[in-house]
Each structure stands twice: as structure tokens, then as C-alpha cells.
Automatic annotation (TrEMBL):
Residues 4-114 form the Dihydroneopterin aldolase/epimerase domain. It catalyses: 7,8-dihydroneopterin = 6-hydroxymethyl-7,8-dihydropterin + glycolaldehyde. The gene is folB. This is 7,8-dihydroneopterin aldolase. PANTHER family: DIHYDRONEOPTERIN ALDOLASE 1-RELATED (PTHR42844). Keywords: Folate biosynthesis, Lyase. NCBIfam families: folB, folB_dom. It comes from Litchfieldella qijiaojingensis. The keyword Nucleus does not apply. Catalyzes the conversion of 7,8-dihydroneopterin to 6-hydroxymethyl-7,8-dihydropterin. InterPro entries: Dihydroneopterin_aldolase (IPR006156), FolB_dom (IPR006157), GTP-CH-I_C/QueF (IPR043133).
């Protein structure tokens, strides 16, 4: 299946399990692969026939701003559910990285796949 890509999307959100993390925004960096057949959009050169990566990115930024979770796992799961519901995405791979959470690591995080390709 073809994929629409969103790479290194930076969002700021309240995320973390420790008390001090509940009062600040921290950056998460997201990579997404969204399965869709791009041929109808390419045939007609029509944005409405594909997944609009600009609209999806904007929705993700808004989701991060309006929600607050402890675990990156919860952020990933809830975001994936919202995206699949609102944008009719059959399958997605979502990587959520939390840079700076572990000083000795470039980033830590999770990668999930949901749906059927
Ligand atoms: N698997 C996870 N481990 C940890 C998480 C997490 O979300 N998933 N979170 C933390 C803390 O919030 C940490 O990021 C603070 O630096 C620790 N481990």
C-alpha cells in the first residue's frame, strides 16, 4: 500500500509521569506513515482524493496542545485512534519520540502500528 508521510513533526504538550512534568510543556517529535492508495489523487491531481498531510499535521498540533497524558504510550494510542476516526486512515505507523527525557539518549519513545493495510 502507498503511504503519505509526515516526518519530524514537533509538537509541544504536557507529557510525563512525574509531578514536575505536569506543569510544563515538553516537545515530542512525531513520524507518521499513513497508508492510502495515492493513485486516484495522482490521476486527477486532486487533493480531496488523498490524505491531506497539512490538515493532518495541523490537527495533531491542536490535539497535542489540548491534551495532557502521563505516558508517551497513552499519547500515541489516543492520537492514533483520533486520526483513524477523523481521517478514515485504514493503517498507520506512528513513532513518538521524547527528546531530552533521557540525557544520554538522543530520544526515547514508542512506535505503534494500528489498523489493517
Ligand atoms: N515507557 C515509558 N517509560 C517512561 C515514560 C513513558 O512515557 N514511557 N516516561 C517517563 C518520564 O515521564 C520521563 O520521560 C521523564 O524524564 C519515564 N519512563
Amino acid at each position: 500500500m502507498d503511504r503519505v508521510l509526515i516526518e519530524s513533526l514537533a509538537v509541544d504538550t504536557v507529557i510525563g509521569v512525574y509531578e514536575w512534568e505536569r506543569h510544563i510543556q515538553q516537545r515530542l517529535v512525531l513520524d507518521l506513515e499513513l497508508a492510502t492508495d495515492i493513485r486516484p489523487a495522482a490521476r486527477d491531481d486532486d487533493l480531496t482524493l488523498t490524505l491531506d498531510y497539512a490538515a493532518i499535521s495541523e490537527r495533531i498540533v491542536d490535539f497535542a496542545d489540548k491534551h495532557s497524558f502521563g505516558l508517551v504510550e497513552t499519547f500515541a494510542e489516543r492520537l492514533a485512534a483520533m486520526l483513524r476516526e477523523e481521517f478514515a486512515i485504514a493503517w498507520l505507523r506512528l513513532t513518538v519520540r521524547k527528546p531530552g527525557a533521557v540525557p544520554a539518549a538522543a530520544a526515547v519513545g514508542v512506535c505503534i502500528e494500528r489498523g489493517e493495510c
